[in-house]
Specification:
homodimer, about 475 residues, alpha+beta, BirA Bifunctional Protein, domain 2, 2 domains, asparagine-tRNA ligase activity (chains A, B), aminoacyl-trna synthetase (chains A, B), Asparagine--tRNA ligase (chains A, B), EC 6.1.1.22 (chains A, B)
């Protein structure tokens, strides 16, 4: 059976076809707008009310499911090229209009908050149907890109016995009695009696394990859920989110930047080509949403312009040290318009600084690199100190318009002695990451990788401004419903 | 830079090329077997020892990384079509032979147990390189198949506030003080003070959430990690494994079987075509392993024959009731050869029964369907009782040679009242799954889906007999290392 996305591309024909879907609207006892989830567009099914029993007509309600038979004709009305001249309507499943009225299925504009509370139904709305189709297209594009480039997906573990990675607060996973856990003689919880015979947590990143696989398979990537137990109730944070982490043997930082830029352009281009209707709809939605906002909070440009802005520009590569100079001498800094004034070399950059660089100064996506060692993770490759004795690491962040940092990566420290010293200095326990260190003994080549929070990418491409609206069932502090 | 998989397919040429990889062996100061993870096959790099400094020659050790330059010539030796006439060798990273000797990188046969203990290194061996490449190919094939069929991946949640699904024991996820959790007035752990303000667990299945997405997008699938906190220390169970769960609106059980059969054949065929060298190697490995085993424990047929057996046969569809009759009257049952004799209608089938049906009776893959309602989950579609008043549900299991059940699925109960009653009868708390039930009010159409444990598929295609050997870092009772 053909789905509606395909039917809407077909030519008028006298051949009878059967279509199944859900009713989005039913006007004048004559026009059924039918949707089956394959596209944002509905198939208009035109019926002659006098040919159908009254109980059938009365059951063609919003959210009910029907099967229709008919043949495709050129549409008489505007808004669609073809429509279904419908000879038969069969009710597959009803929906009580009184019940529907209480839900987000009712045909009116609903607040995003309300939609979140009915996350089991919201995918049946135009906005969430479009977002989730774009999400799925981006997800496939990720796999397709890496496949074409000769990468292997490595399914790194979700449960980890190490809490040493330092990327954020972790969730503890246990099967011990939650109220009266067994204790050791010293009075601590005795994790040797737990399921894994040690304390276990949910992973914050698959990178360290992915590195071990890059040393075997050469080019690998992860694409799986990661977790942060941080009490951040913001529109940009989730406790559970999906992350993409490629890792490549023999790549230095410059090759890592090349890979990241090529990858980002590929997946965005894929979505634009394969989800044109959905993205057009989402652009309109964003424009409507922006009308309610203060000028300063609006998107810097229309959705598709923003996506094209990334595709058509080379990403400008700028060292952290240069960026600090630019920011220090920038108008908003001198006029004290930044919330966080830029003064000292060594400080971390804020979103306002990143956006200034992208949107005002360079007017293109920016890759910042060679960050101060003190503000970055232990596993990043240490550079030689500069003339002023300042220590940097081969880190890179990609900055995008409207969003700031979207990708973070680095060349990894491949030298056994240097890594051992850094782990010691930064209090990373060797007994937990012995394997990560040991790997540096056996043909430990230069290698690099990066991480992309998948939901950030989906936000960027869909124009949704709250991260809870780009994942089916968001997990945030106080929320694990569904 | 070309990778070795590609170079081995190339024609001899005078053009100089550069290759990087790890040394697998170095014979007679002349032949370097170089591997970069892109293929199981090594590139033979032939050097003239007199052209290279002694310290270079001494550093070309197993597991060291080198860059070589040279041009491709027809191979003089047997075993490869082309080899690299090498003019330059650069040591990129060393490996101390004394250290290598202590690891599974040393060039001899290692026990699978030992390899598991060095899971950070085992991917650099022939067997695990092959297994993990096949795993990655199967993973991509899953996405490719569903993409081509118009499915959308739905990223269902890993953390769930519901523990009602009944598919198995769950892991608790918490950020409460593990030793002194806050208590309610009744003296219970006060989960309202936990991160999610309720008790949270790791998911055992994304099916219920996937069903909600099928009602919006029509055809969806999940592919993500799932968890079982069961103390099963067997070669077939993991605490953390990846699951694939398609869910399709309007599909009845027969359509579900069609989908599952088509899908299984597609992904196996994809692996055979895209991993021919790896699978050939793994077939040989299995043959060697089987030589150590008693006849009864050996694989029923060589690896590739077994895969072709699945591809070329139609899956035989047999009702549970028929299967019980066949088993009851079978020779091994009459001769009491089954460990679990088959007697009563209503009993669950064991692996020995499933394998008898596939390997002896039908000699083809089998789909059993319409199981007794009492041994299956609450969400399965209830059939009309049969003439003898026996109640069955529209469940199906796919049985494969050597392994038994590999896929389990069902048509789902779409009727609100019937589902509500079943939830009540089977003690499924409505307050946790209100959304699952409520979905049945709004155009609740016939729909079906199935689940495939991804590691079971990888075992089947690679011939590995312990599930710990088909995932990078296995999680089992007492083991969350790495």
């Amino acid at each position: 059976m053909k789905r509606i996305a395909e039917i809407l591309q077909a030519e008028p024909s006298l051949i009878e076809m059967t279509v199944r879907g859900w009713v989005r609207s039913f006007r004048n006892d004559r026009f059924i707008a039918l949707n089956d989830g394959s596209t944002i567009n509905n198939l208009q099914c035109v019926i002659e009310p006098e040919n159908h029993a009254q109980d059938i007509l009365q059951s063609i309600n919003v959210a009910a499911a029907v099967e229709v038979k008919g043949h495709l004709v050129e549409s008489q009305g505007s808004g669609q090229r073809v429509e279904l001249q419908t000879s038969m309507v069969k009710i597959l499943a009803t929906a009580d209009p009184e019940d529907v009225k209480k839900t987000v299925l009712s045909p009116k504009r609903h607040k995003l908050d309300t939609l979140r509370e009915q996350a089991h139904l919201r995918v049946r709305t135009n906005t969430f149907g479009a977002v989730m189709r774009v999400r799925a297209a981006l997800s496939f594009a990720v796999h397709k890109y890496f496949q074409e480039q000769g990468f292997y997906q490595a399914h790194t573990p979700i449960l980890t016995g190490s809490d040493a990675e330092g990327a954020g607060e972790m969730f503890r996973v246990s099967t011990l009695d939650p109220k009266n856990p067994p204790l050791t003689e010293e009075g601590k919880v005795d994790y040797s009696k737990d399921f894994f015979e040690k304390e276990a947590n949910l992973t914050v990143s698959g990178q360290l394990e992915a590195e071990t696989y890059a040393m075997g398979l050469g080019q690998v990537y992860t694409f799986g859920p990661t977790f942060r137990a941080e009490n951040s109730n913001t529109s940009r944070h989730l406790a559970e989110f999906w992350m993409i982490e490629p890792e490549v043997a023999f790549n230095d930082l410059a090759a890592n930047m090349d890979l990241a830029e090529d990858f980002m352009k590929y997946v965005i281009d894929y979505a634009m080509k394969n989800c044109a209707d959905d993205i057009e709809f989402l652009e309109q939605r964003l424009e409507n949403e922006d009308k309610q906002k203060h000028a300063a909070e609006r998107s810097p440009m229309p959705l598709r312009d923003k996506l094209k802005f990334v595709l058509k520009n080379n990403f400008k590569r700028v060292s952290y040290t240069e960026a600090i100079d630019i920011l220090r001498n920038s108008k908003p800094n001198k006029k004290k318009k930044f919330k966080y004034p830029v003064d000292q070399w060594g400080a971390d950059l804020q979103s306002e600084h990143e956006r200034y660089l992208v949107e005002k100064h360079f007017e293109c996506p920016v890759i910042l690199f060679d960050y101060p060692a003190t503000i970055k993770a232990f596993y990043m490759r240490l550079n030689e100190a500069d003339d002023e004795g300042r220590k940097t690491v081969r880190a890179m962040d990609i900055l995008f318009p409207g969003i700031g940092e979207i990708v973070g990566g680095s060349q990894r420290e491949e030298r056994y002695d240097v890594l051992k010293q850094k782990m010691h200095d930064m209090n990373i326990p060797e007994e937990e990451l012995w394997w990560y260190l040991e790997m540096r003994k056996f043909g430990s080549v230069v290698h690099s990788g990066f991480g992309l929070g998948f939901e950030r990418l989906v936000m960027f491409v869909t124009g949704m401004t709250n991260i809870r609206d780009v994942i089916p069932y968001p997990r945030t502090p106080g929320n694990a419903e569904f």
